[in-house]
Amino acid sequence: MEKNDIIKQINKIFIDILEDDSIVLTEQTSAADLAAWDSLNHIQIITAIEKFYNIRFELDDLLNFENVGDLCNGVQNRLK
């Protein structure tokens, strides 16, 4: 699956969980860029992504996600 397709799907998840239709994610987007992306919402986002793609991230994956690009790479790796 292409990274752009993953970003589009993840963007929809962020909009739904953070309740903000104006969100437009890029690979560089991080929690510091979105005020509503706090620790509680982060857990909800990760859970929603895992459910959507029917994958499960390892703890090491989660600890290394610094931005949306890293998150997309994690999804791509789990889908292989």
Shape: globular
| Biggest β-sheet description | none
Strand content: under 5%
- The first-to-last residue Cα distance is 9 Å
Order of helices and strands: HHHH
Stretches with pLDDT under 50, minimum 5 residues: none
Fraction of helical residues: 55-70%
Structural class: mainly alpha
Radius of gyration: 11 Å
What's the pLDDT, averaged over the residues?
96
- Per DSSP, the total helix count is 4
Total number of strands: 0
Task: Summarize the entry for a quick read.
The chain has 80 residues and is mostly helical. It has helices spanning 3-18, 39-53, 59-64, 68-79. The mean pLDDT is 96.
Q: Any overview of this molecule?
A:
There is one protein chain. The chain has 4 helices and no strands. It is mainly alpha-helical and 80 residues long. The longest helix is centred in the N-terminal third of the chain and has 16 residues, at 3-18. The chain starts with a helix and ends with a helix.
